[in-house]
């Protein structure tokens, strides 16, 4: 770690002297008071003490967002028993066992259930929703951060990770958490990327309503959401993903935060034992449907032209946004080498990329399994501080 990184890390460790045990923010509702989400397009305002714990709540089903499904086996996803040690020579290794984040003194106004797009998938129309948090401590336009939850390509609960989203909003960012189409809707990655870009265009078109600085937008995702964040930033300028409304608005972003997201699906289980590889590459599973569509009998084990096209690395161009990537060294759902290979591809094309490896951390977005401890390494002041530093560098 460089002297600059050591200085930043020390500064973040000194931000708050109180260590709070936070219930990970992974099975939470998007309600800043910590209760259930209100109905369509309602707002609530919260003001927190300087050292208050970030808001938490109980996951509830809402517009296209399924309830958490407790499981000892990551919701039925293939879990690796062994993980090959990843190369960290081009990454920054951090210890994720420090103090948890605290929400600051600012107020945040939250608007729930905003319909940003109504696409049709296989003949069925869906009203896609977002929840948006706007900090009220300062006036004027604020940079926008689009948050994308995980869910194994089969679900997208926009109410997840409330504590982390609120922390970022407290730093002076408008934060919008999206519902996007998944394989459960009969969608592929192309549809989901189009959804993210639709949301960006919608929010730029409605910038005055939400105090958004349209020149400074970032995407931040975890797991499957990290994949979508990577695809969104890598495809800056690719018009094929811009479909739907507000096409007079740009969908380009100025930064990408990718936390433990997959990239090349043919290497999704590259670091794992044979049994985990067999499960991850099973014909017709969720990863295969994500690429090939519903009812497929194909596998992502082979890097076909379709699998290659679904890899953000194949879309990198001079317009691709700067990246910051994060992965746990003990992630048993997405091979740590996935973000390493993506960083290598980004740097080879001259795109700024920094990768952090959290020693001993596992997969951090397990809201759909009811796991409330997996996210703790991902909600420390150290980890979240690196995210905020990146956003500050590229959006402010």
From TrEMBL:
Identify the residues that the record assigns to the BD-FAE-like domain, covering every copy: 130-346
**Which protein, by its recorded name, is this?**
Prolyl oligopeptidase family serine peptidase
- Biased region (Low complexity) positions are 33-76
Q: Give the matching InterPro entries.
A: AB_hydrolase_fold (IPR029058), BD-FAE-like_dom (IPR049492), GDXG_lipolytic_enzyme (IPR050300)
* The entry's keywords: Hydrolase
Q: Where is this region: Disordered?
A: 33-77
State the organism named in the record: Streptomyces hokutonensis
Entry's PANTHER family? AB HYDROLASE SUPERFAMILY PROTEIN C4A8.06C, ALPHA_BETA HYDROLASE
Q: Where are the transmembrane segments?
A: none
């Amino acid at each position: 770690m460089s002297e600059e990184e050591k200085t930043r890390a020390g500064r973040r460790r000194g931000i708050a002297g109180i260590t709070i045990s936070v219930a990970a923010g992974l099975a939470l509702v998007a309600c800043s008071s910590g209760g259930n989400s209100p109905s369509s397009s309602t707002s609530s305002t919260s003001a927190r003490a300087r050292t208050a714990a970030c808001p938490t709540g109980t996951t509830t089903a809402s517009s296209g967002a399924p309830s958490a499904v407790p499981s000892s086996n990551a919701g039925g996803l293939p879990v690796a028993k062994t993980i090959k040690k990843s190369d960290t020579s081009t990454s920054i290794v951090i210890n994720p066992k420090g103090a948890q984040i605290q929400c600051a003194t600012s107020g945040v106004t939250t608007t729930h259930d905003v319909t940003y797009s109504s696409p049709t998938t296989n003949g069925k129309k869906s009203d896609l929703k977002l929840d948006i948090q706007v900090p009220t401590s300062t006036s004027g336009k604020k940079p926008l951060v689009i948050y994308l939850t995980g869910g194994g390509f089969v679900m997208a609960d926009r109410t997840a990770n409330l504590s982390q989203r609120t922390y970022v909003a407290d730093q002076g960012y408008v934060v919008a958490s999206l519902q996007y189409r998944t394989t459960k809707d009969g969608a592929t990655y192309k549809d989901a990327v189009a959804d993210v870009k639709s949301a960006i265009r919608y929010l730029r078109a409605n910038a005055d309503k939400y105090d958004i600085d349209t020149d400074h937008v970032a995407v931040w995702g975890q797991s499957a959401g990290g994949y979508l964040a990577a695809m969104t930033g890598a495809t800056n300028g690719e018009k094929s993903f811009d479909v739907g409304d507000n096409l007079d608005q740009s969908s380009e972003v100025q930064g990408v935060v990718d936390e433990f997201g997959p990239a090349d699906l043919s290497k999704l289980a590259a670091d794992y034992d044979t049994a985990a590889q067999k499960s991850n590459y099973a014909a017709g599973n969720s990863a295969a449907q994500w690429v090939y569509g519903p009812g497929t009998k194909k596998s992502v084990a082979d890097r076909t032209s379709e699998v290659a096209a679904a890899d953000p690395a194949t879309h990198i161009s001079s317009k691709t946004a700067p990246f910051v990537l994060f992965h746990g060294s003990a992630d048993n759902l997405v091979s740590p080498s996935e973000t390493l290979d993506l960083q290598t591809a980004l740097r080879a094309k001259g795109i700024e990329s920094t990768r952090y490896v959290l020693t001993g951390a596992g997969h951090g977005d397990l809201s759909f399994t009811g796991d409330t401890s997996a996210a703790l390494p991902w909600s420390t002041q150290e980890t979240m501080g690196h995210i905020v530093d990146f956003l500050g560098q590229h959006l402010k």
